[in-house]
Each structure stands twice: as structure tokens, then as C-alpha cells.
Amino acid sequence: MTTTAIDSASQNDKNSVLDSGRNSELGEMQQQVLPLALVHGEAMVEKPLDLFIPPDALEVILEAFEGPLDLLLYLIRKQKFDIVDLPVAEITHQYMEYVDVMKSLKLELAAEYLVMAAILAEIKSRLLLPKTTVDDEEDDPRAELIRRLQEYEIIKRAAEDIDELPRLERDVHLPNVDLPESYKPRVVEAQVDLQDLVLAMQGVLKRVEAFQHHHIQRENLSTRERMSQILAKLKPGQFVEFSDLFLLEEGRAGVVVTFLAILELIKESLVECVQSQVFGHIQVKSV
Amino acid sequence: MNHNQQLKNLIESMLFVADGPLSIKAIQTTLEDDTALTRKQLQAIISELQLDYAERGVNLIEVASGFRFQAANEHADQIALLWKEKAPRYTRAMLETLSLIAYRQPITRGEIEDIRGVSVSSYIIKTLQERNWVKVVGHKEVPGRPALLATTEEFLDYFSLKSLAELPELMPVSEINLDTEQVDEQLETAEA
Amino acid sequence: MNHNQQLKNLIESMLFVADGPLSIKAIQTTLEDDTALTRKQLQAIISELQLDYAERGVNLIEVASGFRFQAANEHADQIALLWKEKAPRYTRAMLETLSLIAYRQPITRGEIEDIRGVSVSSYIIKTLQERNWVKVVGHKEVPGRPALLATTEEFLDYFSLKSLAELPELMPVSEINLDTEQVDEQLETAEA
To answer: Where does the signal peptide begin and end (chains B, C) (predicted)?
Structure first.
């Protein structure tokens, strides 16, 4: 199904096609359609015979229906039937012709169309049966179908009305006004609960305790002791070579203790380290 | 410029710059740090703005979720010229499904299928939901607990409606007449 | 409404609705089928519009590529309220730093680093200062004269405290029966 096919069957063609369809000569047409159906393209629209429906055009027409109710409404309209006094036999006949054409065109025939065919057949057969009860409206086998047709018709119109409403994009245009260049978005600050704060502090304290515990056990005492020794070595205002503070004979462990002690002293602002030039000697003095 | 004038200007700016319609409540919330504006005062300012713009190239109108400026109706065609892109068209299946949800809400997909006589594709429901026109408002207490569909404020906004009551009235059953003129028209619009 | 008024309204609509600034040329091109508007006439209409909007919430301004409406400058800040950007939640590092300043003030950044065992980024201190929760109250008389940090009145106001004495008492460490995992968890959710 291509758009070229739609284009090739002009609007007028389609209307005349429908009229011929209404003439209920579809059975005959099918016979003519069949050989032509093998040929695609221009051949089908080249010389339309009187009752000939180009298959592609018919396909378009049939696809224009939203379903069996829509098709039935179309048939009723076309024949000027009264919806409340539906001639079921006739409408069924026409409906089946369309369904047959759909089949012959190997259209993906939706199950709904066949269900409707069955409903129509059932109504028809019930109407043919001799009436056993009083003929009131409730008992009319057509009543349910008519109700459905009416309900569908109402919604079909409503959809058309909604389509007509002015709508954004198509009919309603919104202004597109920018903020000045100077605009800066205002940031909404994060929410903080007092609880978060207390929890954070508890966390810090707990970590600090664990940390201290660890150090006290391992080296804190020796470091503290070494700190005092270093301070004792330093005279106020006098620089001492950084390397002089280490006693190599103490070995690796002793060097580490001294180093930690110096760091601790610096941290507590008790001593000051000075390096006058890059890679030069580091001088230490007490504050 | 006095204080009132400034406030009016500010609200005017906000309405112009906002991404969508602004409700009285939204304006109040935005301004609450700076002004103690009552709903009534705000309403008065908006009425004034509506009057100011009544005869201009843009109008201040009310839709379901609030107030918005929009280009005056009479210029719509010419304004459309500014855009090469065509507005999206919606298929009959889509519009009929939307209509059923709008007029018969809350409604299940099965109920829509019963009335239309054909199955409703998931694509249609998905598209309507993605456009934020339709949302699930609950589930029907029947086997399978199917979703109950309803329209949203965005749906009303899109069609410039304040409420569902403003939807076009449904045709009364008695008026279903069968004039033939409509028949060919239907096919033409469906094919177009 | 006379013809001129209508034309002015149309141009006003176009300027409002356009995706970007519109040049005189662009307006002329869009309108040329309907009106034979000279450049000069168009210029006059635009000047008139600029005057109409001079004192309003939106102004018609000229930029390099043409004319466009934009929100009046003086309202930018308040309009910006409509676009509240949410700041990320505070990280654990931020909360710990703030709690140390609150409970151990006045305190230097170095001291905070010592207690926390990790360095405190300048960003954290800056953020807390920008929020007006933390301020420098002096300098410690040690080399480098590091700033002594303390909390502000705004900090107390935010947490509805009358004074620092109202800060919740900290449990002695030995009584913290939350195992560390729980604390971490809580902090992580706070950070999330």
C-alpha cells in the first residue's frame, strides 16, 4: 500500500468507486479484479471499467473505516436507511460484500469485522423466526446493535469536535519570552536536620576515639616522650638542623618515632620548620 | 513606579516567562518570601492584566491549570507561517479513544474497545500517556483489575479548556440523523 | 480596531511567539503577501511597541539578530524563583565539619582536619560561609594565624536554637551504642 496508489486514484474516482460499490455488484467486480490484481501500478487505474474498483483504492477506502461499526454506519448513511428501523437483511448483505472484498484482497481482516458478520447473521435469523411474544421494542434483536451504533456515532462526532477545538501547536501559539542575560537561577539550599548534625558529630567522636585508642597502644607514649626530648634540645629562637634531631643508631623504628614527634610538634604549633631554599637543609626552631 | 505597579509588572513577567500556565497558588508560593499577597489581591492584578491585554497581540487567558499568555486568536494563521513544521495530526483512532476517555472517564481500555467495536492498540494508550493527556486514576474492581483512565489538566490546557464541562456537548441520540453529505466527507478527511 | 492597529497587533504576536529575535527583514518577508509594508513603517510600529512596553513586565529589546521580548531586568531575580535549582544534599564531610565548628568553636581549619583525620576542602568552608552559617571570628595566635571559625546567628535561626547551649548534648563516646555501621549508614542516607 503506497501513497502513489492513493494519489493515482483521484478523489473523484474514489467517490464513483463507492457509488458503484453501493450498486452491489461486487461479486461481478471481483471476477474482473482478479486477473488485474496481478499487475501493480498504472495498469489498475489506466482504464477503469464501469464497475471496476482499483484494488489499491478499495483498500484505502476500507482502511478508512475505524471498524465494523464505522463501516455499518457508512452503509446505513449511504442507503439513507433509518437507523432506528434498520433493514437488517439488506445491511447484512452489503456488509458481507465488503467483507468478501476485503478477503479477496487478502487484507488483514480484523477479527472484529467477522464478529460483526456473525452478529448480523444472528439478528437476521432471529428476525426470520416466527414471533412468539408480543412485539415490544425490548425484544427487537436489532435493539442492541442500534444502541451500539448510536453510541459509536456520538463518540465519532465527539472526536471530530475535539479535533476542531483550538489546540496548542496548531492553533494556539505561546509567547516565547526569555529572561535577561543577567539572570541567575536561585539555588535552594540543601535541608539539614539538627539530627544530621548531631549524628555527624557522634560519628567524628567515635572515629577519633577508635583512632586514639589505636595510637595510644602502639606509639603515642613514645612519641609524646620524644616530643619532650626534642623540645628540650631546642633553645628558643635558635635553629637546629632537622637531620641533627635523628639518632641513626636507634634504627628505623627510632627514626619513625622522631619523625612523628616532629610532625606532632609542628601540628601543635610548638615548633616551626624552615627551608630557606629548595633542596636546602631544613631548620627547626621552637616557637 | 509605585509598589503596586511593580508587583503587577513582576507578575506579568512571571506569566510571560513561565514554562506553562501559572495558578494563583503557584504565583503566591513563588512570591511569598517577598510579599504577603492575598488570593484576592492577586486575582485583581490578573484581571487588570487580562484587561490590559484584551486588545493586544497576545491575550492572558485561563486554562485548567492556571493563567497563560497566548497569541491572540485572530493572528493564528499568520503566525503559523513563522513555523515550517506542521503541528502533529492525530488519527481517528487516537481521537476517538481520547474522546471516550474525556467524556466517559474513568474508563477502562476494554470499555473503550466495546464502544468502538475494535481493539485499541497499546501504542495509542501509550502515546496519550506520554503526551500527559491521559493518566491511570485507579483500577476497576473486576477480574484482571484493569486500569481506569482519565484525562489530565495538561489535556485541558492543550485544548485551551478550563474544565471538562467546557468540552463540546455530545450530540443527543435523537439528533443522530443520516444525511448523506457527511458520508463522503468522512472518507475524505480520513484519507487526507 | 482599525487596520493599523491590527497590523501592530499581528507584529506584536509574531515577536512574542517567535523562537528567537526577529529582524525587520524577517517580519517583512513573513508579511509580504498580505501587506506592502515599508521598512520605515515597520520600524515605526516597532518603536511604538517598544514604547508601549517600556514600563511593563516585559520589554521589547533589540539584539544583534533582531527584536525580541524579554522579561524586564529588574524582576530577573524574583522570576528566577520559578526555577528553583535544588542544591545537592550536604556530604558527610560537610556535616562533620559543620558539627565540629558548632560544638568546638572557635576552631581552626587545621584543628578540624586533625580531628577528622582528613583535610577539609576549601569548598566546604566556602559553602558554609556563603550560607551564612559559619563566620571567621578571629585568628589563632600561632604561625600562619589561622582563622578561627564559629557559627552565626543564622545558623541558630535555621535550627531554631536560641543559643549554642541548646545544641543537643553529645553522648559520651562510651555510650554511643550505635555500632559504626549504623552511623555510616545514616550518614550515607543523609548524603544520598
So the answer is: none
- How many residue pairs from chains A and C have C-beta atoms closer than 8 A? 139
For residue C57, give the chain B residue with the closest CA: B9
How crowded is the C-beta side of C142, counted as CA atoms within 13 Å? Answer: 18
Interchain proximity B12–C58, CB inside 8 Å = yes
Which chain C residues are closer than 8 Å to A168 by Cβ? none
Query: Touching check for C31 and chain B: CB below 8 Å?
Result: yes
Q: Which residue of A has its CA nearest to B169?
A: A158
**Lowest model confidence (mean pLDDT) among A58-72, A174-188, C176-190:** C176-190
Would you call B183 and A74 a contact, using CB atoms and an 8 Å cutoff? yes
A179 and C114 in contact by Cβ < 8 A? Answer: no
Q: Are residues C60 and C106 in the same domain?
A: no
Q: Which domain holds residue B29?
A: 3-77
Helix, strand, coil % in chain B, rounded to nearest 5? 50, 15, 35
pLDDT digits (tens, 9 = 90+) for A265-281: 887 777 887 776 666 67
CA–CA dist A268, B71 (Å, integer): 71
pLDDT of residue A252: 67
Tell me, yes or no, whether B190 lies in a domain: no
Q: Cell numbers at residue A172, please?
A: 494556539
C-alpha cell at A34: 482478479
**Mean pLDDT taken over chain A:** 69
Q: B56 to chain A nearest CA, in Å?
A: 13
Q: Does B174 touch chain A (CB under 8 A)?
A: no
Q: What is the pTM of this model?
A: 0.60
d(C-alpha A229, C-alpha A245), whole Å: 10
Grid cell in block for residue A226: 620524644
Distance from C-alpha of B131 to C-alpha of B19, rounded to nearest angstrom: 16
Are C159 and A194 spatial neighbours (Cβ–Cβ below 8 Å)? yes
Amino acid at B23: S
Structural domain contains residue C191? no
Give the per-residue pLDDT at C124.
92
pLDDT for position A12: 39
Question: Own/partner pairs for A110-114, CB < 8 Å, 24+ apart?
Answer: A110/A67, A110/B118, A110/B119, A112/A67, A112/A68, A112/B117, A112/B118, A112/B119, A113/A67, A113/A68, A113/A71
Kindly tell me the sign of the dihedral angle through the C-alpha atoms of A107, A110, A113, A115. Answer: positive
Touching A: B residues 41-70, CB under 8 Å: 58, 68-70
Q: Indicate the length of chain C as a whole number.
A: 192
pLDDT tens readout for residues C81-117: 666 556 678 888 999 999 999 988 888 999 999 888 8
How close B67 gets to chain C, by Cα (Å)?
15
CATH number reported for the structural domain that contains residue B161 in this entry:
1.10.10.10
Q: Distance of CA C120 to CAs A267, C16, C149, Å?
A: 15, 50, 13
**Looking at the domain assignment, is residue B189 inside a domain?**
no
Grid cell of C53 as nine digits: 512596553
Q: What percent of chain C has pLDDT over 70?
A: 80
What per-residue confidence (pLDDT) applies to C32?
Answer: 73
**Considering only CA atoms, which of A211, A192, A204, A193 is closest in space to residue C96?**
A204
Q: Of B54, B77, B100, which closes a domain?
A: B77
Whose cell is 552511623? That residue is: C183
Q: Are A198 and C172 in contact (CB under 8 A)?
A: no
Residues C100 and C164 in one domain: yes
Our CA-based measurement puts residue C59 at a distance from the nearest CA of chain B, in whole angstroms, of 9
